[in-house]
Amino acid sequence: MKIDKNTINKIARLSRIKLDDKESEDYIKDLNSILDWVEQLNEVNTENVEPLSNISSSILPKREDVSNDTNSSEEILENAPDKLEGFFAVPKVVE
Amino acid sequence: MSKSSLKQSLKDLNTKKISIRELNQDYLKRIKEKNNLNVFIHFSEENVLKQIDNLEKDNSAKKLKGIPIAIKDLFCTKSMPTTAASKILENFNPTYESFVTQKLLDEGSIFVGKTNLDEFAMGSATNTSFFGNTINPLSKENEPLAPGGSSGGSAAAVAADLCLGATGTDTGGSIRQPASFCGVVGIKPTYGLCSRWGIAAFASSLDQAGIFSHNVEDASILLQSIAGFDQRDSTSAKVDIPNYFENLDDDLNGKTVGIPKEYSIDGTPLEISQIWEDAIKVLEKKGVKIKNISLPHTKYALPTYYIIAPAEASSNLARYDGVKYGFRSDEIDSLDEMYENTRAQGFGREVKRRILIGTYVLSAGYYDAYYLKAQKVRKLIADDFNKAFKECDFIVTPTAPSAAFPLNEKQNDPIKMYLNDVFTVPASLAGLPGISIPFGIDKNNLPLGIQILGKHFDEQQVFNAAVSLERSYE
């Protein structure tokens, strides 16, 4: 078994998702079955194969190096769950 | 029920046989009647009437002026909320318009509503939506069927004649499979043809916008409208967009179709093998050369996809943290707790599953064994197609391994659900264009789909083969 209680806790922590015990158990089962299933990729010989990360053939275009001030902080804050004096507001971080 | 095509409606509008208001009133009436299908996450009659008012005052000529279009609720729209079918974006009102929807607005189309989907496009039945299932309009009364997914709301909107076309997105089959389940046409173009700007991201190296429509001609008209270069999407392609509709040519004489033997999979229903054979016979009669081809890495496409897509999703969905937009949990004693509770309460089960698996395959110690390995196999899959397309002009396969399945069918086994995409995922990994068209029915009178795949940016060939098959079937 690749995923045990410790591993799922570690991944959940990295993902910033709180799991209760029941969920942890379910995901341990799901993730192990998915990982067993993808294991078949080990049958494929990939020696000297370049990994493909971008299928697009286009070359990244360069834009003009000019500054661009849209002054859109109000727009950006429009959907914020909590804001304060033109900033996003979060719970207190420093004690 | 005879459905009007987009092409015909444009003609009727231009000859003043019908007004924009009359045309759209007809669709509004049906949308309200078919409310039980739960096709739309957002629908406002008032909003549609306002759009009609504005167009009536506008004297300029526009290509899609007055045409009712449904928008998958993954595209950011200024005039309507955008949720990605997730609680975490329940009250999100974009302050900008996606590239694709802006193009449709510029051409004068009317947005009838935002359609339901699997949460963040992760699913194959539109059953992971925070806003409930969409029901396939072809369902019989006592047995509701799934519309497929993730773009199930858009496919159902076209099938139920609630619009003349709809936008979708396809990451591993999310346009083609629901098109097949709902008996409509659905095209996923080449990766890079339509800008991803303003589309809530799932797996960025695979996500691609596309179109649902009643027929191939309409799809060719709409795809031209949403395609094009956009500097805000770094993978957007600088290619000329042909007038697909004007160039449609159903004469396939002398062309070669590739038939991949690896798509004959054990356990595929006989009816699906049958329509595949029928399609091949039709093509043969039209003077198309039949070429048996091999795509040897096909069986590895699904496991490859289910490493790469969740890996990219786990990274893309990191932005939903309860700070900048969307839902924030009430239980926020500390910053970390705010993140963890917001994401625990804001995401659904399938989305969390994929974030967790994606985080695992990208985590230290496992990256090479899973993610890098999958990227290498992806290269082999793409190479398979490149080799095959040296011998043929297009490829024909079934779209999905089944017809629409019952809504209540237990889908607790994630791998079983993932198998829905077995015929669509390989082309997604290779970035190729693919269309699904209705072609035949099963013993329960449910539509089955045929998939046509083409070379990169050869949407014209895909449309030509599709229109040829469609006309032979009608």
Tag the structure with descriptive keywords.
heterodimer; A: 95 residues; mainly alpha; Histone, subunit A; two-stranded antiparallel sheet; 3 helices; 2 strands; B: 474 residues; alpha/beta; Amidase signature (AS) enzymes; 11-stranded mixed β-sheet; 11 strands; 38% helix; globular
Helical proportion of chain A?
25-40%
Which regions of chain A are unreliable across 5 or more consecutive residues at pLDDT < 50? none
Mean pLDDT of chain A: 91
Summarize the biggest pleated sheet of chain B. Answer: 11 strands, mixed
Number of helices of chain A: 3
Q: Indicate the structural class of chain A.
A: mainly alpha
N-end to C-end Cα span of chain B: 15 Å
Biggest β-sheet: strands ordered side by side in the sheet of chain A: 1-2
Order of helices and strands of chain B: HHEHEHEHEHEEHHEHEHHHHEHHEEH
Using the coordinates above, name the CATH class of the domain at 5-40 in chain A.
Answer: Mainly Alpha
| Strand and helix order of chain A | HHHEE
Specify the CATH class of chain B. Alpha Beta
CATH topology of the domain at 5-40 in chain A: Histone, subunit A
Task: State the shape of chain A.
Answer: flat
Structural class of chain B: alpha/beta
Instruction: Give the assembly state of these chains.
Output: heterodimer
C-alpha Rg of chain B (nearest Å): 21 Å
The total number of structural domains of chain B is 1
